[in-house]
Amino acid sequence: MDLDTAKQELEEFIPHVRNISDSSVRKMAGRDLVRFKEFKKQGIAVKFGRFSQKENTQIRKNVEEFLSITGIDSAEKLLFTSRYPEDKGTINRLKAEHLFCEKLSEGIPRPWRLIYYRARKMFDPNNYKGRYTQEEKEKLKKYHALHGNDWKKISEMMSRSNLSVAMKYSEIKSAINYGPWSKEEIQKLMNAVEEVIRKRMETEDANSLSSSEKSDRDVLIDREILCQKLPWTEIEAKVGTRYWRQCKQKWTTILTNKMNKGQQLYRGTKGLQAKINLIKRLYEMRVEDANEVNWEELGKTIGDVPRTYVQAKFYKLKVSCVPFWQKKTFSEIIDYLFEEKLPELEETL
Q1: Which domains are seen in the chain, by residue range?
Q2: Are 254 and 261 in contact (CB under 8 A)?
C-alpha cells in the first residue's frame, strides 16, 4: 500500500494521522489497519487516552499467553530484550515466529505502538522505585551532561524507567521555583499556551471553511483546546522556572477562575456541596473504570470548570478519604465514598 492510500484509510480511525511521521504511518498501516477494520465490523471504535482496567487485564493476559507459547521466562525479557544481549537473538526469533505484534494487541482497539508502550510501563521492574534520593538526582544531572537526552541509556545506568528519568530531569534541570507564581511567570505561561495553541490551529486546514464558519469554529475550538491535552514539556521549556506539572496545575487554576469569574467553587459550604454532588453523580454513573467517566459532563456538578479540575478534586478526595485506595478498583473507591464519606459530608453541611 502506498503512503497516500495508507493515510487516507487510516484517517477514518485516526483523524490526526496526517500529523504523524511517514515512517510511523507505514508501521501503522502494517500493524493496525486490518485490526481497525475488524473492530469497525464489530461496532468498536478505536480508543486513545488512559487505558482502562479491562484493557490492562487484557494486556497482562496477552503477555502471559505469549510467554507460555514461546517459553521466554519473563515479561522483562520479552519487552526489554536489549537488557539481555546474550538472549537477544533467540528472543527476537521467537517474537517473529509467533507474531508478537498480533498477539500483544489482541482484543485491544488501540494503535499497536500505544499498547506496546503501555505493556512496557506495566512490566518494567524499574518503574516503581519511589522517590529519587539526592544522590540519584546528582547522578541524573551528571549522566545527562554526558549523554544528553538518551533516556534509554540513562535509564539503564540508573535502573529506572525511561519515562521516570526523563520526567525527573525536567523537574531538576534548572532552578525550579516552588513558591507562589509571580505575575511575570503567569504571563509567560499564558503566552506559552497561546503560542502552542496557535501553532496547532495553523496545522489544521481551515481553507475549506467560510469566514462565518471560521468565526464559529474558533470559539468552539478555543474552549475545547484550552481544556484539553497540551504539550506540557514544551510549555515548561517556554516558562523556564516551573516544571511541567506545575504549569498544568496553574493553567487549570487560571481557566477555572476565568470560567467562573473568580468565584470560589470549592470553599466552605459550596465546597462541601460540590463534594457531595461529585460523589453522588459518580455513584449514579455505575461505571467500572475512570476512563468511562465523562469528566466534561461531571464538571457541571461543581460549576463551569475544566475536566482536569474535576479530576484533580476527585483525586484529592480519594487520597484523603479512602484507606488503601491504591489497592481498590475504581468502583470500590466510589462505593466507599458513597457509603462512608457521603453521610459525613451531608451531616457537616
Answers
A1: 3-123 (no CATH), 134-173 (1.10.10), 183-206+219-260 (no CATH), 268-348 (no CATH)
A2: no
